[in-house]
């Protein structure tokens, strides 16, 4: 069973499982600001998280539409690192078609940041694109799940 809770005093929405133990699974914040990849990352960090890291297929299933995610090869071309510096698990990638292509022919700086595309019609959830980090998109922030206090969102009956 999964349900969703809001973190007190936070803009993040968190999901919890197994509510006897109230194991907190993950907290996400969907930014509506169109920012470059580093500006998006700054915004997430200011809000106590970081750009989302996709650690499971379930996490990929949850998210849709065009958002920056926390994956980049800006340090070393072709070496994809998540924002916590963990390497991309090659068995758990969702590159679209021939991506990543670092289309340097059109982008003098190459393409070093990853945007999730719309999943609609994407076979097997494959909707990641490497893009110029200077483009502006919305982003998904993720917050370490173990911090903070949580409250159930219950609407009083008859209110
Ligand atoms: Ca690149
Ligand atoms: Ca690309």
Automatic annotation (TrEMBL):
<feature type="domain" description="C-type lectin">
    <location>
        <begin position="27"/>
        <end position="142"/>
    </location>
</feature>
<dbReference type="Pfam" id="PF00059">
    <property type="entry name" value="Lectin_C"/>
</dbReference>
<protein>
    <recommendedName>
        <fullName>C-type lectin domain-containing protein</fullName>
    </recommendedName>
</protein>
<dbReference type="GO" id="GO:0030246">
    <property type="term" value="F:carbohydrate binding"/>
</dbReference>
<dbReference type="InterPro" id="IPR016186">
    <property type="entry name" value="C-type_lectin-like/link_sf"/>
</dbReference>
<keyword id="KW-0430">Lectin</keyword>
<dbReference type="InterPro" id="IPR016187">
    <property type="entry name" value="CTDL_fold"/>
</dbReference>
<dbReference type="InterPro" id="IPR001304">
    <property type="entry name" value="C-type_lectin-like"/>
</dbReference>
<dbReference type="InterPro" id="IPR033989">
    <property type="entry name" value="CD209-like_CTLD"/>
</dbReference>
<dbReference type="InterPro" id="IPR050111">
    <property type="entry name" value="C-type_lectin/snaclec_domain"/>
</dbReference>
